[in-house]
Design brief:
The complex is a heterodimer of chains A (228) and B (245). Chain A is mainly α and 228 residues long. Chain A is 81% helix and 0% strand. Chain A is elongated and about 75 Å long. In chain A, 40% of the residues are buried. Chain B has one domain: 3-Layer(aba) Sandwich (Rossmann fold). Chain B starts with a strand and ends with a helix. Classes of the chains: A mainly alpha (228), B alpha/beta (245).
């Protein structure tokens, strides 16, 4: 067995630079997705909450527009969403294939829609009394959001973000179809298509480790912030 | 002065609309402790919420110190609500904020000319040793003290109490009643208390409105008994209520 192990280690060393590169590509896609989730998904989810029935900014039209957007993006088979977005990405970014930044566009779109839904659910879980208390104090909407809603929902917002993060990793693995690269693409190209099964499982193991770490960190942070 | 004229409010119910508040006319004087009593569902809470516009009547008038509350624009409404504090049955504290931060919260929302200090009100309600605790670490009575401290810190001109003791046991109720009475004496404000507990009204109010199914049945003078019977232990009360003929 030590001989087989030796062979394996040698192969891993041989593939390490390619693996590092693909991790870098995954990192780019993940960062774009996370930033989009926070900068746009969080406000969109908050809007979904505030515009819903009985809430301070109740507005059927606004709610439906946001709701339909989220539903369409989330129900689109992701691979097809990637394909459909190609002309748009080409228009905005100049090229639609062959680099992780171009591949980040569909990642950002799904990140916004997915996290917006999580945020909406988290906010709906806040006890009704909190909203009433805020209203009785004569709050503005930004005060309501920052000083009441996000304070009380913070750990559930983080747990939602963690779940979304894990989904982003999963979505990122198919970006190889448009040349986005990434760890998933690495596993498919070197492991699956070239029958180098050991490399494939090694890459998958790396992904699993990432997911476990992310999940652990997210839950730990959420628990620390949860004083309920 | 709080002036409510022919105020009516309906809610959509399972069997059609029902009138939660049915053309009620009522005045509450400045610095008065006024009770609103009735069984649950009588419309007491809705009536009280007219005062700080958490509810708006379908018809009728609500005037507070000459300001027509019903027609206020958003900004003016916030200014109106700024000076009216509210204490809730289920306390409604932010569970992720410490006692101190909960009490300070209203001061971070508006500019107040002469607010009390957080330390002052914490001391007033007797929670000096709990200032850095979170609500989950407090008992019901302590949570309500925080609720009252949060209400007092702005030096409100009106304090609205919505079933302030209904989630508490009897001895704790007496403690809270005591805090409310001292608060009114010390800070000199109008207090409106909604409750179904007659004892609370008896100990606090000089006047009370009696409501039944949305209607104002009567406004009565209360023969106030300044001390309830807070000296008795739970065991003694049990004996008194269950064994006395």
């Amino acid at each position: 067995m030590p001989e087989a192990l030796q062979v394996y280690i040698q192969r891993v060393i041989e593939y390490a630079p390619r693996l590092g590169e693909s991790l870098y590509e995954t990192g780019i896609m993940m960062i774009f997705a996370m930033v989009a989730a926070i900068l746009l998904g969080l406000p969109l989810g908050t809007l979904l909450y505030l515009a819903s029935k009985g809430k301070p900014l109740e507005n059927k039209f606004l709610y439906q527009v946001a709701n339909i957007f989220v539903n369409i993006v989330r129900s689109f088979p992701f691979l097809l969403l990637v394909v459909v977005m190609q002309p748009l990405i080409r228009y905005f970014y100049g090229r639609a294939t062959g680099d992780p930044v171009a591949a980040s566009f569909p990642m950002m779109l799904i990140a916004i829609a997915l996290y917006a839904r999580f945020v909406e659910q988290s906010l709906h879980d806040i006890p009704k009394g909190v909203l009433e208390t805020a209203r009785s104090m004569g709050v503005t909407t930004p005060q309501l959001v920052w000083k009441f809603l996000y304070v009380e929902a913070r750990s559930s917002l983080i747990i939602g973000f963690t779940t979304a993060f894990v989904s982003f990793i999963s979505y990122s693995t198919i970006m190889g179809v448009v040349g986005g690269g990434g760890i998933g693409d690495f596993a498919i190209r070197y492991g699956y298509q070239r029958y180098e099964t050991d490399i494939m499982y090694s890459a998958i193991a790396v992904i699993i480790v990432f997911v476990i770490i992310a999940q652990w960190l997210g839950l730990k942070l959420a628990a620390r912030l949860d004083k309920r | 002065m709080i002036d409510i004229k022919a105020a009516t409010k309906s809610f959509a119910g399972k069997n059609g609309d029902f009138k939660a508040v049915d053309s009620i006319t009522l005045s509450i004087q400045n610095k008065e402790i006024f009770g609103i009593i009735g069984e649950s569902g009588a419309g007491k809470s809705t009536l009280m919420r007219f005062i700080n516009a958490l509810e708006t009547p379908d018809s009728g008038q609500v005037t507070v110190d000459g300001t027509d509350v019903v027609t206020l624009g958003k900004k003016a409404l916030r200014q109106h609500q700024k000076d009216i504090s509210m204490v809730f049955q289920h306390f409604n504290l932010l569970s992720n904020k410490t006692v101190k931060a909960n009490i300070r919260l209203p001061l971070t929302l508006h500019k107040y000319k002469t607010p009390l200090s957080v330390d002052e009100v914490i001391e007033f309600v007797g929670l000096d040793d709990k200032r850095d605790s979170y609500p989950a670490e407090l008992s019901g009575g302590q949570k309500q003290r925080v609720g009252i401290a949060r209400a007092l810190v702005t030096r409100p001109k009106i304090l609205l109490c919505d079933e302030p003791t209904s989630a508490l046991d009897e001895n704790t109720t007496d403690e809270i009643v005591d805090v409310l009475r001292r608060a009114q004496e010390e800070f000199d404000m109008t207090v409106v208390i909604v409750t179904h507990e007659l004892g609370v009204i008896k100990q606090l109010c000089r006047r009370a409105a009696v409501m039944e199914r949305g209607r104002l049945i009567d406004t009565i003078e209360v023969n106030r008994s300044v001390r309830g019977r807070p000296e008795l232990s739970y065991h003694e009360r049990v004996l008194e209520v269950l064994q006395d003929a």
